[in-house]
Amino acid sequence: MSSSTTPDTRSGLDWARERGMGALAAKMGIEWVEFSVERSVATMPVEGNTQPVGLLHGGAYVVLGESLGSMAANLYAGSGKLAVGIDINATHTRSATSGIVTGVCTPIHLGRSLTVHEIAVSDEQGRRCSTIRITNMIKDAPQP
Fold it and tell me: Where is the Thioesterase domain (predicted)?
């Protein structure tokens, strides 16, 4: 861990629930399961997040991935810092049509100014549906 970051000392899950994921994630039904700098997990229902033919919308996978990766980067960044997404990409390899999907976020790189996370999104049978990679830049948080 970099000496320029000071992760929050509260439980990661408590920190995430207190901060919230924002209005879009709430509308999509995303819920935290586990949250720490090393591993973050959230679920999202397929129902209500589909494209016209009934498949989970590709953008919904990306919202789940960005929510997990950006929040994990902000927990890592610590007090007085802000992590903002500067790059995201997704490869969809399977289509979910019902139930819930689960995103598991793990860090690839945790640096002083950049973090990179991979988010693997799987269906209820454990089959990977999408792989998302997000890069966040860590900067000073704006002063109130």
Answer: 54-129
The half-sphere exposure of 136 on its side-chain side, counting CA atoms within 13 A, is 29
Closest to 110 measured CA to CA, from 69, 61, 68, 63: 69
Opening angle at CA 37, ends 32 and 71, nearest 5 = 50
Question: Which of the residues are catalytic?
Answer: 66
Please answer whether residues 102 and 33 qualify as being in contact, where contact means their C-beta atoms are separated by less than 8 angstroms: yes
**Amino acid 21: pLDDT:** 78
Distance CA 101, CA 82 (A): 28
Q: Of 73, 85, 83, which is closest to residue 138 (Cα–Cα)?
A: 83
Residue with tokens 């109130």: 144
Q: Residue 55 in contact with residue 97, Cβ under 8 Å?
A: yes
If the chain, 144 residues long, is cut into consecutive pieces of 10 residues, what is the mean pLDDT of each piece? Answer: 48 78 91 93 97 96 97 94 97 97 98 98 98 98 88
Dump strand ranges (E) for 2-140.
31-35, 40-45, 81-92, 100-110, 114-122, 128-140
What's the pLDDT score for residue 12?
79
Indicate the residue type of 138. Answer: I
